[in-house]
Every structure is written in structure tokens, then in C-alpha cells.
């Protein structure tokens, strides 16, 4: 009944240590207690010796250094978000502060021997070195926001417990990405009208592996990959520098407007196919369900894999529980807003009285005098909008419930509460964001 049941069975009959090392989040007292019922015994010294090389090293020992300000959600694998109060200080999130979401140890890839293989097209596989990718295809740069499907999961956990990392509001960040267009690479590898007749998906495989040798993988619809307006990149730079190890060095796919999970890092293989990726993360995770669906009744085949994400916004200042001074007379509210599929955020509404009255926030167009890029072409708004509004403190109020909600150019809006969109995996959490602050007289 465990969602990763197939992995548990692979551990049966052998030492558990390599599994504890990899899925270190589960190495906790209450899990050991559940498992004690199934304990077979201790391995003999002789058998133990045979296993020595298997369990010798911590697979996470070569993970890169990380910025100490990050709020760690899990250490092994490394998952962390920046503190919400600094998230919107910069339109472009510095790479060190960009949220990090790893399912497995960070693989060490030698850029000189790195090869990307493109498969499934007539004429056989095409193999590209990093140098090929940089020199044989034009370099494109886009600014795109990545958001994890689990962003704001903590709010779902408050309604009813869900499975997954307890992300706050900062499993989202914005960067500029440079690399070759996936479209250009697929055309060079043999994609054409004949392939279009049967090919429906492009699958991606990472070079990060679990103890069984299974790699991280996912897929996207082929139209997104081959469209001129899709802007899907095989990125080798982030914010004008070599892609950092945590973000997929040497190459990751950036699928703008699409859930983080499809933006495969440490990209090793691309497969054009009639089928979606059969990886766990495409088939049995990152899907939405009705609030009434539980782990006994869930059928992952019944729901589509998340691709484009719904409209989202959140308040980064003031923080929940903060104090504002009555003598200031006003409160300045700041945050971010973003929508999937290239839909542009056109408005953010803010209330400081629990939703009775609303003010329209200003969408920021510059940072410290530096003006952002001009408006994106329609349908290609890949980057978030930062916003701000200053509102009078209502007379007599001892406490303010501050709310934000955004609208995109398809007039999609956020739901007002969490409970009706609650789902067992805690994904797609995009209700109105609410913080409560106290007014100091
Ligand atoms: N790619 C690989 N190879 N392995 C992973 O664990 N995690 C995915 C995606 N790509 C992942 C991956 C998920 S769920 C998210 S949200 C994003 O990467 C996070 O990207 P970031 O760490 O650069 O923020
Ligand atoms: Mo994610």
C-alpha cells in the first residue's frame, strides 16, 4: 500500500542500509517501529562483508555546498526553499537562493565526457556533446519561473495531512536560462511531418539514479517541444553563468510554463515517443485528485499528469504573525504572482480586511532602477510578476487578515479556500493566500 511499494520490495531479503542512505527522510523512529514487525534478523559477519561495497559510501557525500539561509525541507535528498521574506527582493532569483528540489543524490557529471542522446527518431540515435550543444545550435535566453507542484503544500497539511515535503510559499523562483532550443535539436535529429503522425510525447531522463539504477524521468506533450512559441530550452546556463550542480549541470531542460517536475536536470536522454514517460514521477505522482479520494481508493491512471500549472500568487511581506504599528497608518503588502502555460498575470487584488474590500496592486516593472524586459509576446509570459500595494490600516482593527488573489489573461482566478482543492498528494495548492498581522496601538 506504500506509494513507493515497488522500491520497498527491491530491498526485501537484503540489507536495508543502502535504502536508508538513499531515502534518509524515512530513517525515523516511527518508521523503524512500523518495520520492526517485519524484521527477519541480522546478517552474519560473512554476508555483511559481501555487502560492504554496496553500503560503503553515503550517496549524498558529493552533493554541492548550499547557502545557509535556505530553509531545509529534507537534507538527503536535498530540498530547500529561500525564506519567503527575501524571495521577492529580486525579480531574478540569485541561483544560490533558488529553491532546490532533488529526489536523489546530485550526480557528478564530467562535462568533457558528457553525452546527450536523442532517441526515437528515424535514422537512429543522435549523440551530442556539451560542445555540440553550444556550437551547433543558436543560443537562446528566456526568463522563466519554475514552480514545484508541491509549492504551498503546508497550507493543505493544515486542512488534513497529505504526503509530501512540507513546502511553504517559496518552492518557486525565477531565473534567466540560456541554451539550445529543444525544437532545433529535434529537427536536427530527424523530427518532421512523418514523425508528427505518431509521436505525441517527448520523454526526458536524468543522470541521477536510485539504488536500483532507476533514473529520474518525465515527459511533455510533443507540441510544446516542437512549437516555435514553446521556448523549451536545453539550458547550460542559469543567470548568465554555468548551470550550478543543484540545478542540473551540465544540461537541464527548461519547459517554461510547465510544472517543475518536467524540467529534468542532469539531462542524459531525450526520447520521442507515442507514449508518456513510464517513470514513477509521470505515472504515479504529480497528479491531482478530488478531496474525497484517499490512499485506499486512488487510481493514478484515472488522472492526467500535471503539465501547465494554475494561476498562483502569495504574500511575501508582511509575514504571517508580524506586527504593524497603528502610527504608521498604512501597511505595504508585497508578493509574487504567476500562471502556467504562458498566461500572463494581468491583475493582483489585495484585501486587508479579510476580503470585504479590495485594492489593485501595482505590478513591478523594475528592480532598483533596472527595468525588466518588455512585455512578452501573447501566450509566452513565462516569468512571474512581483507586486506591491500600500493600504491604509482600517480604523479600530486589532488584527488584519491580508489576502491576495491574482487573475491571468484567460481570467482564471484562484479559489478562495484550500479545503475544496485539497488532494492526498498536496499538489496544486493555489487558494487565496492569507496572512494575519497584529496592529500595535
Ligand atoms: N530532474 C532530475 N533529474 N531529478 C530531480 O529530482 N526534480 C524535479 C525537476 N527536475 C528533479 C528534476 C522537480 S520535482 C522540480 S520542482 C524541479 O526539478 C526543481 O528544480 P530546481 O531544483 O532547479 O529548483
Ligand atoms: Mo517539484
From TrEMBL:
Pathway: Sulfur metabolism; Energy metabolism; sulfur metabolism. GO terms for cellular component: mitochondrion. Keywords: Metal-binding, Molybdenum, Oxidoreductase. Residues 305-439 form the Moybdenum cofactor oxidoreductase dimerisation domain. Residues 103-281 form the Oxidoreductase molybdopterin-binding domain. Its EC number is 1.8.3.1. Pfam families: Mo-co_dimer, Oxidored_molyb. GO terms for biological process: sulfur compound metabolic process. This is Sulfite oxidase. It comes from Solea senegalensis (Senegalese sole).
Amino acid at each position: 500500500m506504500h506509494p513507493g511499494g515497488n522500491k520497498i520490495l527491491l530491498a526485501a531479503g537484503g540489507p536495508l542500509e543502502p535504502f536508508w542512505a538513499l531515502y534518509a527522510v524515512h530513517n525515523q523512529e516511527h518508521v523503524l517501529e512500523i518495520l520492526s514487525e517485519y524484521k527477519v534478523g541480522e546478517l552474519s559477519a560473512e554476508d555483511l562483508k559481501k555487502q560492504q561495497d554496496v553500503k560503503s559510501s553515503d550517496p549524498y557525500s558529493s552533493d554541492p555546498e548550499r547557502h545557509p539561509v535556505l530553509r531545509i525541507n529534507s537534507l538527503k535528498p536535498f530540498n530547500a526553499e529561500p525564506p519567503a521574506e527575501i524571495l521577492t527582493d529580486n525579480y531574478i532569483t540569485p541561483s544560490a537562493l533558488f529553491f532546490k528540489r532533488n529526489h536523489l543524490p546530485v550526480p557528478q557529471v564530467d562535462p568533457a565526457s558528457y553525452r546527450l542522446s536523442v532517441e526515437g527518431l528515424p535514422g537512429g540515435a543522435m549523440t551530442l556533446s556539451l560542445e555540440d550543444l553550444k556550437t551547433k545550435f543558436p543560443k537562446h535566453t528566456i526568463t522563466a519561473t519554475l514552480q514545484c507542484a508541491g509549492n504551498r503544500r503546508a497550507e493543505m497539511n493544515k486542512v488534513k495531512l497529505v504526503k509530501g515535503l512540507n513546502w511553504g510559499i517559496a518552492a518557486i523562483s525565477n531565473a534567466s536560462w540560456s541554451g539550445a532550443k529543444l525544437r532545433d535539436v529535434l529537427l536536427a535529429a530527424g523530427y518532421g511531418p512523418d514523425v508528427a503522425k505518431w509521436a505525441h510525447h517527448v520523454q526526458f531522463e536524468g543522470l541521477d539514479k536510485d539504488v536500483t539504477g532507476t533514473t529520474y524521468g518525465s515527459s511533455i506533450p510533443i507540441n510544446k517541444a516542437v512549437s516555435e512559441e514553446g521556448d523549451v530550452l536545453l539550458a547550460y546556463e542559469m543567470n548568465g553563468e554555468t548551470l550550478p550542480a543543484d540545478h542540473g549541470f551540465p544540461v537541464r531542460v527548461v519547459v517554461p510554463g510547465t510544472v517543475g517536475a518536467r524540467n529534468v536536470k542532469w539531462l542524459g536522454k531525450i526520447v520521442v515517443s507515442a507514449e508518456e514517460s513510464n517513470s514513477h514521477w509521470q505515472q504515479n505522482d504529480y497528479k491531482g485528485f478530488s478531496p474525497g479520494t484517499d490512499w485506499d481508493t486512488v487510481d493514478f491512471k484515472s488522472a492526467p499528469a500535471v503539465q501547465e500549472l494554475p494561476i498562483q500568487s502569495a504574500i511575501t511581506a508582511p509575514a504571517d504573525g508580524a506586527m504593524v504599528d497603528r502610527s504608521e497608518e498604512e501597511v505595504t503588502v508585497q508578493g509574487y504572482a504567476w500562471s502556467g502555460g504562458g498566461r500572463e498575470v494581468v491583475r493582483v487584488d489585495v484585501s486587508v480586511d479579510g476580503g470585504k474590500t479590495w485594492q489593485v496592486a501595482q505590478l513591478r516593472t523594475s528592480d532598483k532602477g533596472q527595468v525588466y524586459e518588455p512585455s512578452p509576446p501573447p501566450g509566452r509570459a513565462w516569468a512571474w510578476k512581483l507586486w506591491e500595494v500600500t493600504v491604509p490600516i482600517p480604523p479600530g482593527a486589532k488584527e488584519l487578515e491580508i489576502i491576495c488573489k491574482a487573475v491571468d489573461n484567460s481570467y482564471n482566478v484562484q479559489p478562495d479556500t484550500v479545503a475544496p482543492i485539497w488532494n492526498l498528494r498536496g499538489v496544486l495548492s493555489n487558494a487565496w493566500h492569507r496572512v494575519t498581522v497584529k496592529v500595535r496601538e
